[in-house]
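Appendix B. One record, verbatim.
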Amino acid sequence: MRVLIVYAGRTGTTEKAAHMLADCFDDASLRNLMETDANPDRAYDAVIIGSSVRNGQIEPKIRKWLVKHEAYLAGMRKGVFLCHAFMTDSHQIIEDNFPDAFIKDCEAIDSFGGELNYDRLKLSERMTLRRLVRRHPETRNMVPCLVTDSIMEFAEKMNY
C-alpha cells in the first residue's frame, strides 16, 4: 500500500512519530507541513494526517491543508493521529478540530502520546506548562512519551 503521511508539529515529537509510523508501511512518503506544502496526487492508496496539539488545538497548517485538499481526501482511505502529552483529552480534541464527516470516514484515529521537549518550547509555552502543573499536581509525576503500541495498532488498522 502506498501511503502519504502529512504532519506538522513544533518540537519534533510529531515528526518522530510520523517516521516511526512510516516504518510500518512498505511504501510511505512523509511531508512535514512546517517545512513544505504537500500537494498529493492519486498515486496514494491512503493519507495519514498527524498533528501536535497546543491548548487543545491542532496545528494551523494541518487545518489549512485539510480545507485545501478536502476534495482529494473525500475518496481516500485516511487516518489521523495526534501527539500530545495529555492523552485523556484526545477524543475531545478530535471532536473539536475535525469535521464529523471527516472523522467518520477515517480508518484509524489515535493519540500516540507525546514528549515534553522543554528546550524546544517557546518561553510562553514553558510558562503555560508550569501553570498547568501547578493547577494539576497529579501531572508532576507524568513521564510523557510516545506510545509505540498505539503506533503499531494504528498501522495495522490502516494496513488491514
